[in-house]
Design brief:
This protein has one helix and six strands, in the order E-E-E-E-E-E-H. By secondary structure, the chain is mainly beta. It has a single domain, classed as Beta Barrel (Thrombin, subunit H). Strand 1 (17-27) and strand 2 form a beta hairpin.
Length: 137
């Protein structure tokens, strides 16, 4: 059974929605944007798959167009969780959980509106990165 809005775990402020879109990620240790893939999104954070090596606590800048929106958003975020490809098939594959920082009320509303009516991400148990390498343009 898919959880309703009322069944959101206490640690979450909003349900995560299943998405699939490109995101450009920038860090202080990398001098150009790295194309990555966002697989779930809420008004407060996202899960993405990337080849950019980051560690928990890193601050990043995420540039993306939310679903059903043409205008690109740029938000600051903190890396909260990192899952590395343990199989070694793709040695530089990472699944990364980001928490947005200092989002404005307008940005939060824009994300909330963009996600309205989209299905929640179904729980899968242990997170695996499943990263498909993406080459930055």
């Amino acid at each position: 059974m898919v959880k309703s809005q009322e069944d959101i775990p206490e640690s979450r402020r909003a349900a995560r929605r299943a998405v699939d879109f490109r995101i450009d990620l920038v860090t202080s240790s990398w001098d150009r944007p790295v194309a990555s893939r966002c697989t779930d999104l809420s008004p407060f954070g996202m899960w993405l798959e990337t080849t950019l090596p980051v560690v928990e606590g890193d601050q990043v800048v995420a540039c993306f167009s939310p679903p059903h929106r043409d205008k690109e958003m740029t938000v600051f975020a903190r890396v909260r969780h990192v899952v590395r490809d343990d199989l070694g098939v793709r040695a530089q594959a990472f699944g990364v959980g980001l928490e947005f920082e200092n989002v404005t009320v307008f940005e939060e509303k824009t994300l909330g509106d963009a996600l309205q009516g989209m299905p929640p991400r179904l729980p899968t148990g242990k997170r695996e990165s499943g990263v498909q390498p993406i080459v930055a343009c």
